[in-house]
Amino acid sequence: MDEALLEAFRSTTYHVCLDAVRWAIIRVDLPLPAPLAAVVGAQPWAFVTAWNPQARRRPPAENEAAQHELLAALEQQAGAKVYPAIGVGTSGWSEPSLFVTGAGVATLDGLTRSHGQLAYVHGEAGGHATLRILD
After folding, report:
1. CB neighbours of 129 closer than 8 A, spacing ≥ 6?
2. How many domains does the chain have?
3. How far apart are CA 47 and CA 59, in angstroms?
4. What is the pLDDT of residues 62-115, one digit of tens each?
5. Cα 60 from Cα 52, distance rounded (Å)
6. Cβ atoms of 135 and 109 closer than 8 Å
7. In this predicted model, what pLDDT tens digit does every residue of 15-62 receive, in sequence order?
8. Which terminal residue of the chain, N or C, has fewer Cβ atoms less than 10 Å from its own Cβ?
9. Is the pTM of this model over 0.90?
């Protein structure tokens, strides 16, 4: 992954919808905000998407179909809970995403790789958000 793309991932603001009115923001290398940490508890978590594999734009209908596949696969994971989310870059770019708790790294690596992703944001209970690079 080139430095510009790596910096784009690191500078993105990752928004998670907690309920009809509350959102929480994740930033790489920082701890989760308290409301989101309360949701996560002692579980592993990740911020993932199936949009624009290999960081290349593709038609919205293809992105939506892939995102539905990813959501269905995550919902099949025992103990996993999925929340709507969106990643917003500093250039104005954004991608619909998913925040998931309770799914392990091996599962998340497999699912994100199968959707052509280069990286995702991940963490454990009380730890910091980290960028997990897959390529």
Report:
1. 14, 26, 27, 28, 29, 30, 31, 32, 47, 121, 122, 123
2. 1
3. 22
4. 999 999 999 999 999 989 999 999 999 998 889 999 999 999 999 999 999 999
5. 9
6. no
7. 999 999 999 999 999 999 999 999 999 999 999 999 999 999 999 999
8. C
9. yes
Cβ pair 109, 134 in contact under 8 A: yes
Q: Are 93 and 100 in contact (CB under 8 A)?
A: no
Strands of the chain, DSSP E:
13-17, 23-26, 44-48, 81-88, 94-101, 119-124, 130-133
Six-digit token string for 127: 């730890």
Residue 133: how many CB atoms within 10 A of its CB?
11
Domain that holds residue 73: 3-133
